[in-house]
């Protein structure tokens, strides 16, 4: 089965969501979710794992921004980055 | 908008002229896409269903198109298998690298092969649906922020306006 199969994609998204749910319940402590992580990595292509990891980081950052939890130093360093 | 020359998922060569007389909504994507293309294609399928319900009010048929921005991997067979999961009405288009690059240039669609992990890679690309009228003219575009109902509604407005101006 490959990414071209709908069932494969849905399985990958489902185990990914389980992993994210675990992280959410464990304050993003990856050590507490190793089994979910293993399942996630074995159910999705490596490129998708990288992509979803980046998406997750970004989603958390957005959430923190909205909640006013991002430290001003971090914000400053982002503002200083050249615009792409 | 502009000219294009590609082949369908049934290996039939087509150009933009073959779609004159139809409303076409084009989504650019690739079969190895992790999440965005599946979401947008579900949306495109829903738009298609909504518009087909109003078929008898429309003078020209509505045709959704999927165009691959991953010519290296997306053969007609792969595209055919992929689009069938979303809608029986989709036509999938692919071609040589030059043909795809040419169309993307005319449609101002950015696409770029991302870093490889083994043999695999993700294609970074603009996320957009383009609406072309039965005269082959570019009319409108829709991004991720519009849902299926909003897109279908917008298209219906264009269809009505077109009908009026062509009486």
TrEMBL record, chain A:
Subcellular location as annotated: Mitochondrion
Biological-process GO terms, alphabetical: mitochondrial ATP synthesis coupled electron transport; respiratory chain complex IV assembly
Claim: Disulfide bond is one of the keywords in the record: yes
Broad class of where this protein is predominantly found: mitochondrion
GO cellular component terms attached to this protein's record: mitochondrion
Alphabetized Pfam families for the sequence: COX6B
Coiled-coil residue spans: none
PANTHER family for this protein: CYTOCHROME C OXIDASE ASSEMBLY FACTOR 6 HOMOLOG
Protein name according to UniProt: Cytochrome c oxidase assembly factor 6 homolog
Organism, scientific name: Adineta steineri
From TrEMBL, chain B:
Domain Thioredoxin: 1-160
UniProt keyword annotation of Disulfide bond present: yes
Gene Ontology annotations for the cellular component aspect, listed alphabetically: mitochondrion
S-S bridge residues: 33-37
Entry keyword set: Copper, Disulfide bond, Metal-binding
Domain of life per record: Eukaryota
Entry binding sites for Cu cation: 33, 37, 125
Biological processes, Gene Ontology terms: mitochondrial respiratory chain complex IV assembly
Keyword Disulfide bond: yes
GO MF term list: metal ion binding
Family the entry assigns: Belongs to the SCO1/2 family.
Designated name of the protein: Thioredoxin domain-containing protein
Natural source organism: Adineta steineri
């Amino acid at each position: 089965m490959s990414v071209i199969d709908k069932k494969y994609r849905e399985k990958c998204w489902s185990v990914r969501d389980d992993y994210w749910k675990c992280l959410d319940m464990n304050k993003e402590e990856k050590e507490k979710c190793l089994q979910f992580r293993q399942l996630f990595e074995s159910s999705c292509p490596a490129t998708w794992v990288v992509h979803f990891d980046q998406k997750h980081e970004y989603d958390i950052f957005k959430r923190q921004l909205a909640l006013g939890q991002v430290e001003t130093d971090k914000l400053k360093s982002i503002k200083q980055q050249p615009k792409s | 908008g502009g000219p294009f020359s590609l082949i369908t998922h049934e290996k039939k060569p087509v150009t933009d002229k073959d779609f004159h007389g139809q409303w076409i909504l084009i989504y650019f994507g690739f079969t190895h896409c992790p999440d965005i293309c599946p979401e947008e294609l579900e949306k495109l399928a829903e738009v298609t269903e909504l518009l087909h319900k109003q078929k008898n009010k429309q003078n020209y048929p509505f045709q959704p198109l999927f165009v691959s921005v991953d010519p290296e991997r997306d053969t007609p067979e792969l595209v055919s298998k992929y689009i069938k999961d979303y809608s029986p009405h989709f036509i999938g288009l692919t071609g040589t690298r030059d043909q795809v690059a040419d169309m993307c240039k005319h449609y101002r669609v950015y696409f770029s092969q991302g870093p490889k992990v083994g043999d695999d890679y993700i294609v970074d690309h603009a996320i957009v649906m383009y609406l072309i009228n039965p005269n082959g003219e570019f009319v409108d575009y829709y991004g991720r922020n519009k849902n299926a109902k909003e897109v279908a509604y917008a298209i219906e407005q264009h269809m009505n306006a077109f009908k009026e101006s062509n009486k």
